[in-house]
Design goal:
- Helix content is 42%, strand content 20%.
- By secondary structure, it is of the alpha/beta class.
- The protein has 2 domains: 2-232, 3-Layer(aba) Sandwich (Carbamate kinase); 312-450, VC0802-like (2-Layer Sandwich).
- The strands form 3 sheets. It has an 8-stranded mixed β-sheet with strand order 3-4-2-1-7-9-10-8, with helices on both faces. Strands 12-13-11-14-16-15 form a 6-stranded antiparallel β-sheet.
- It starts with a strand and ends in an 11-residue tail after the last helix.
- Adenosine-5'-diphosphate binds at residues 7-10, 40, 209, 231-233, 236-237, 239-242, 266-268, 312.
């Protein structure tokens, strides 16, 4: 039995949902079990919901209500296109009721003029709650036994609103108690991704892009044979297609490579997706919902057979470099601990670290507590920050065996001023930090070096 997660573009409109229905039909195991379906909000809806909250919180209630009306109409148009009258009356009533609640929240925010993270979660979660209900009804309409499951019943999380952390034991138990019996009865459970609730029932969300993570958690809890991530590209590509014109498809990735690529910016996978799959050794496949017959990218514990020196590249923008320089660091122990305690205190993740005798440089991409962090670090030495930096990273299991690859990475970027260079203990990636303005050029140089120029087939080969 498999788990199929569909991203926002794969449920964006009625045609997309009809493609989903066909994919789900093909995803049924020969014994009639599964698939379990996890869906994102319709594309653009999470952004729109967050805008609703921001507008209302800024006392622009009329704008917020107008946006709610447009969202309401978009969802009702979906049910009109996909669902017959017998199911639609109840479904539309539920959707209308949710939108009425959303409008009431917007009016309240307009009066209070303040949006807490807890309220943001209630608002943001509505996207997945709508889409999952619609998809369940569309499956039923197509003669498949779809059944909506409220994700808030099964995804149990901490109360860290907008970035809640799933409580794995409780979540796995709830999934096995609620979802598995439905699968065993031949039904196709449909859940919203991204959404959860605390043990005492407060709605939470897992952070942007978190539906992939939901899909993987569901897959691991029920012991799925495969976790499929259906999206709008053919699979993991050698580089971000928004930065490189013709990246190549990577047919096979190891879990470790995929985790590094996701962490360092390959948006096609949420950074936490791989962990649940690794724990149960469940293959993950990234597939294009517009081309369901494509092979996609298969991610397993095995390194890819053969393949390129570098498997793929990833990049992050809006990175900030923080330098701490102090003569107290010289020959001293305990200095780095003090520095990292500051980041821990402000719950800010550090991505890359380099040190010299008297200085340490780190990168962060969460700027929320930057001022306070700089203040606290100033106690230990001179602190300088450089915003608008970018991180570029080349990933591949083969980097471990062939040190010449790292040298090639640095050599091909020789005319780009590199601010930091790091190769971590896993030796599976080499990461460089540069000015953001240099990123497009650096990406092109690196992609050309390892994956060649995107050229049409030679004339004689046609
Ligand atoms: P979904 O809504 O299906 O979750 P996302 O927008 O979150 O889709 O992720 C898919 C997008 O990730 C692609 O459209 C692409 O622009 C971007 N992306 C960035 N890096 C990569 C990469 N290395 N391979 C594939 N896609 C990538
Ligand atoms: N809808 C959420 C978002 O846009 C979660 C997801 O799509 O993965 O971030
Ligand atoms: Mg995504």
């Amino acid at each position: 039995m498999i788990v199929q997660k569909f991203g926002g573009t794969s449920v964006a409109d009625p045609d997309a949902v009809l493609r989903l229905v066909a994919i789900a039909r093909a995803g049924r195991a020969p014994d009639g079990r599964g698939p379990i379906i996890v869906v994102s909000a319709l594309s653009g809806v999470t952004d729109a919901l967050l805008t609703v909250a921001a507008e209302a919180g800024a006392a622009r209630t009329a704008d917020a209500l107008a946006l709610i009306d447009r969202l309401r109409e978009r969802h009702l148009a979906m049910t009109r296109a996909l669902v017959g009258q017998d199911q639609r009356t109840a479904l539309d009533a539920e959707i209308a009721d949710q939108f009425d609640q959303l409008a009431a929240v917007a009016r309240a925010l307009g009066v209070l003029r303040e949006v807490s993270d807890r309220t943001l979660d209630v608002v943001a979660a509505m996207g997945e709650l709508f889409s999952s209900r619609i998809v369940a009804a569309a499956l039923v309409q197509a003669g498949l036994p779809g059944e909506w499951v409220d994700a808030r019943r099964v995804m149990v999380t901490t109360g860290d609103h907008t970035r809640a952390v799933p409580l794995m034991r409780e979540t796995a138990a709830a999934l096995r108690a609620v979802v598995l019996p439905r699968v065993d009865a031949g039904r196709i459970p449909v859940l919203g991704g991204f959404v959860g609730a605390t043990l005492d029932g407060r709605t939470t969300t897992l952070g942007r892009g978190g539906s992939d993570y939901s899909g993987a958690i569901v897959g691991a809890a029920v012991g799925a044979s495969e976790i499929q991530i259906w999206t709008d590209v053919d699979g993991m590509l050698t580089a971000d297609p928004r930065l490189i014109a013709e990246p190549r498809l990577v047919p096979h990735l190891s879990f470790a490579e995929a985790a590094e690529l996701a962490y360092f910016g390959a948006k096609v996978l949420h950074p936490s997706t791989i962990h649940p799959a690794v724990e149960r050794n469940i293959p993950v496949r990234i597939l294009n919902s517009r081309k369901p017959d494509g092979l996609g990218t298969l991610i397993t514990s095995e390194p890819a057979p053969g393949g390129d020196a570098v498997t793929a590249m990833a990049a992050k923008r809006d990175v900030t470099v923080i330098d701490i320089t102090s003569s107290r660091m010289l020959m001293a122990y305990g200095f780095l601990r003090q520095v990292f305690e500051v980041f821990e205190r402000f719950q800010t993740a550090v991505d890359v670290v380099t040190t010299s005798e008297v200085s340490v440089s780190v990168t962060v991409d969460d700027r929320r507590h930057l001022e306070a962090i700089v203040d606290a670090l100033s106690e230990f030495g001179e602190v300088a920050i450089e915003p608008e930096m970018a991180l570029l990273c080349a990933v591949g299991d083969r980097l471990r065996a062939d040190p010449a690859i790292a040298a090639r990475v640095v050599r091909v970027l020789e005319e780009v001023p590199l601010r930091m260079i790091s190769q971590a203990a896993s030796r599976r990636n080499i990461t460089v930090i540069m000015r953001q303005a240099d990123l497009p050029h650096a990406m092109h140089r690196l992609h050309e070096e390892f994956f060649g120029r995107p050229v049409a087939a030679p004339v004689e080969a046609r």
